[in-house]
Amino acid sequence: MTSRRKFVQAAGLSAVAAGLWGWKEADEGSAKPVRAPLVLGIAGYTFTKVPVDTGISMMKRVGITELSIKDVYCPLDSSAEVIHGVVEKFRQNGIHIYAAGVIYMKTEQEVDRAFEYAKAMGVDLIVAAPNPELLSYTEQKVKGYNIRVAIHNHGPEDKLYPSPVDVYDHIKGLDARMGLCLDIGHAVRAGADPVKVVGDYAPRIFDLHIKDLAVVSKVAKPIELGRGVLDIPGLARVLNRIGYSGRCSIEHEMDMNDPLPGIAESAGFFRGVVKTLG
Predict the structure, then answer these.
(1) Which of 45, 49, 146, 215 is buried most deeply by CB count within 10 Å?
(2) How many domains does the chain have?
(3) How far, in Å, CA of 7 to CA of 10, rounded?
(4) pLDDT digit string, tens, across residues 223-275
(5) pLDDT per residue as tens digits for the range 17-35
(6) Residue 29 lies inside a defined structural domain of this protein
């Protein structure tokens, strides 16, 4: 695990570290992998307790323009007109809604509603938690709508998908457009290593919810990136190695009445990590 102090020390040696991160050099007979830019986003749960205009203002202040919207800002039963209005409000403020979720699906009707909602919103990704018995039906919808589904792992308390390993075991034989939204904090609490998960399941990693933990424990609470023990630099390196093109969305769950300081600190730390990648 990499602490904030260790990262700060390492940042000054980034040029040296770059040679230690497992990149294959040209003289080994292999070109360096093409690095997709790692793009920050916000997971909509972060804004559960703040009004839409406040959430927009916070995103603009920290320079994040990608949002996975939660239904608190646009209820799932909204008309197409209402949905379009919400999307336009964010667009006019320079914010792109790239996904919708987390959306829970316990019936076929709820699966249908989720796909119609995503279609009306104009997104090609639903962050979801469908009941396992609905995965075959969900796969049919994925094929029909050409909208991807990223199943979110929710930690050891979750009876459906506690770990990203559990998610993968359920979807590995299904359409390639069914993948994972890897929540790194919940993954560690469930005993998984996010760096290994990204490497092992690279083609199915569609979205990330990023946070930190003060300790490795099933009951650990999320904290700002860089204040805890999670290996954020290692995560960034493996994301670069696989050419990850999705978003790295901050999910801040501490002071949810005023999440801006935590978002800003997390964003600053993550951007600093990314800069060390060269």
Answers:
(1) 45
(2) 1
(3) 5
(4) 999 999 999 999 999 999 999 999 999 999 999 999 999 999 999 999 999 99
(5) 332 222 233 333 444 445 5
(6) no
E-strand spans in the chain? 39-43, 66-69, 96-105, 125-130, 148-152, 178-183, 205-210, 212-213, 222-223, 247-250
Average predicted confidence (pLDDT) for the chain: 90
Kindly write down the DSSP assignment for every residue of 105-135, as one continuous string. Answer: E-SHHHHHHHHHHHHHHT-SEEEEEE-GGGH
Contact between 227 and 220 (Cβ < 8 Å):
no
CA dist 228 and 136 (Å) reads 38
**In the block, residue with structure tokens 């995503």:** 118
- DSSP letter assigned to residue 157: T
Largest separation between any pair of C-alpha atoms in the chain:
58
User: Distance between CA atoms of 274 and 278, rounded to whole angstroms?
Assistant: 8
Residues 6+ apart with CB under 8 A from 80: 120
Structural domain containing residue 97: 4-10+35-275
CATH number at residue 142: 3.20.20.150
pLDDT tens digit string along 106-159? 999 999 999 999 999 999 999 999 999 999 999 999 999 999 999 999 999 999
